[in-house]
Amino acid sequence: MKRKGMWLLAIVILVLVTGCWNRRELNDLAIVMGTGIDKIDGQYVVSAQIVNPGAVASKEGGGISQSAVATYSMRGSSIFEGIRKMTTETPRRLYFSHIQVLVLGEQVAREGVKEVLDLLFRDHEVRPDFYVILAKDTTALQILSMIDPLEKIPATKLYKSLETAEKSWGSIVSTQLDEFIAELLREGVQPVLVGATLKGKVHTGASDMNSQKISQPNLLKYQDIGVFKKDKLLGWLNEEESIGFSYITDRVDSTIEEIPCETKNKMVIEIIRSKTTVSGKVKNGKPQVEVSVSAEGNVGEVACPKDLSNPQTIYKLEADVEKKIREKIVSAVHKAQKEYHSDVFGFGQSIYRNDPKGWEKVKEDWDSKFTDLKVKIKVDVRLRRTGKVGNSFIPFIKKD
User: Fold this and answer.
1) Is 18 domain-assigned?
2) CA 253, 354, 250: angle at the middle one, nearest 5?
3) Residue pLDDT, tens place only, 366-388
4) Domain boundary among 237, 265, 295
5) Is 14 contained in some domain?
6) pTM for the complete prediction?
7) S-S: 237 plus which of 232, 241, 282, 369, CB 3.0-4.6 Å?
């Protein structure tokens, strides 16, 4: 019994000691929700969006209103230096465990992002499950400095908008830090990141980059996909090409396809589910890839004089949607092959999985092989519903 009591006392002491040796009080920390990395005149500009817990939790009422966040930035010859120098302005120690989004400036991305990612992936305080995005036609600091009427914290706006857009619009893809690094390390595939830009006039809010930013009201829009080769940004896929990329890589949860009519009007088809399989192999020393897309959709909007009660109309409409999807896929493949020479679709990875021996024969020269790769595309679309009404009333509206 005495021995058991000694063991119990030892356990209690260990728990108390190990639980307190590295504790940090919340009042001593500046919780970073979003981080931005730009490069200007050969120096890094590191931005950190810090949340004000009191302002976020407070209810509307009398008194002085407080900003929910403050965005600080600092120049440095390295990213680590910029982060440390930022403590000369922030009243608390920066705490990065709750980052929701990392914004990379286009200049940083074009020069290479491996140093940025290594720093954040190495830090034991930083969890690698935050989203990484690119600042397109603007800076990471300006992206973090925007405000939104529906979200108090801009980083949360970036996070939620990305998740919502990816589920509803095929040109948007989300990538977390650990996913991006995995793509860098895997054979036969190159990484991508989505771009974010600001609509409307961008106000800097301050003339010096080494200062606290006052957030400005701008509308943020996710737009285009950045194509990488290894860790360097090469260029962009436009919206149509980005949707084609999402079809190939089986990332389409839901999107829409517009089919023009004989008139200037159009029909809009809602894609409600999509499944893509990619099979690759090497035959007679030449790699071959087949992309098969199977999609289901509903008729969402009709402004054409079409008889939707006629099965032949539905068959023709399905064929038109198939053609539209195929065009987007072909456009994405052509640009990646001929302009960027970057296999962002993972065709090489598909060959590796399906034909490992064949992959060993072509992997050393995959860049040139990918450029001339013949891709067979199959698209099958089935329309399930036309809505609660059949033919549109629009063609029957009385004319004066």
Assistant:
1) no
2) 10
3) 989 999 999 999 999 999 887 54
4) 237
5) no
6) 0.84
7) 241
